[in-house]
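anyone seen this seq b4? input:
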Amino acid sequence: MKKTYVAYYSFIGLITLATVLHTVFIGSLYVQHGKQIRNLTVENRNLESQKSKLQLALAKEQNINSLQEFILSEGFKNINNVEYISKSSALASR
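predicted toks r here
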């Protein structure tokens, strides 16, 4: 009878130990998975911010290029090609 109790309680102890180890192992996997998700979320936010900055820079560059093309197509001259007007009143009176 005593052997039966020893075997029974040994079996219960072994099952309890296995359950505890399994719970700790699975819990550590969940914690590790949570850390990975948090790191990926932070990385995603950083990449979204960088993408937004790059899109803004690209939009500015495209806007400047389209404005420059418009200026050239309309015949406007660059600032370095300045033409001076004579201040002579004789020219204005004709």
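The first helix runs from residue 2 to 73. The helical segments are 2-73, 89-93. kinda curious what u guys think
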